Structure formats: C-alpha cells, structure tokens
Amino acid sequence: MSFDREALVEAARAAADMAHAPYSQFRVGAALLFADGAVVTGANVENASYGLSLCAETVAVAKAMSEGRRGGLVAVAVSGPDAAEISPCGRCRQVLTELAGLDGSDPLVLGAGTGGAREWHLSDLLPDAFGPDAIATKP
Ligand code: THU
Description:
By secondary structure, the chain is of the alpha+beta class. The protein has helices spanning 5-16, 56-66, 90-101, 122-125, and strands at residues 29-34, 39-43, 73-79, 108-112, 117-121. Strands 2-1-3-4-5 form a five-stranded mixed beta sheet.
C-alpha cells in the first residue's frame, strides 16, 4: 500500500508535542498507519521512577490494540527531537512485532530527525524475533 510518508512523519512530529518528558527532555512521537487509513499516534510518557517510562511507539501500539486493532499495520513513523534520525529502541521493536505478527505484516518504519528520515522494514530491525511460535499459548 502506498502512503504519504511526509504526512505520517508530520503526524509523529505533532504527537511529540504531547510527550511527557520532563526528565530526559527528549520528546518523541510515533504514528501508526493502518490499512484502513487510520492513524494512531503516541508520545513518550516518562515517570519519576525512570525505568517505568514508556516510549512513544509502545504508547501508540497500546492505544491501537486497546481500541481493538489486531493487525493491518502498514507503516510506523517515529519522530525525535534531534537532527539525527531516530531508530526505535529494542523493546519497541518487540512491541511493534507483536502487533505486526498478528497478521504477518512487515510494516515500514520511518525514523525521522529534524532533517530527514531513515527507512527500514520492521523485520530488518528485529530479525529472528521472539514470537508466539516459541511458546505453547498462541494468540
Ligand atoms: N524514547 C522513545 O519514546 N522511543 C524510542 O524509540 C527511543 C526512546 C523515549 C524514552 C525516553 O522517554 C526518552 O525517549 C529518552 O530515552
């Protein structure tokens, strides 16, 4: 499915404005594009107990899944505050892979900085991912 990369990155940028990042000051936004055209966004939500902080991508996936989405993920844009393009953290790669794996999709991931964006397939960011096939209880 072709889509407007600029628009998706812009949605991620706008989401970053909603970040709660008083500890790192590193405001991140994420935008998930689904096959039906819906865009679900998220921003990082930090906590005074630093380790409990949630990344933008994880927040976006939790929003989407708690609204009932179980696949159809076409692309993910992530926007960071720096000039350098951002690359999703390892935990977020796993969280995104759970959603994508539900219908076997391999979404594009756009990692945007203030200049441009890098682009990967999710499977390239997390090859040989741990998934439901490894455990007894499958979705
Ligand atoms: N962060 C994200 O939201 N997404 C990433 O992919 C990398 C890091 C957040 C976590 C923390 O709130 C801040 O950026 C600094 O690490």
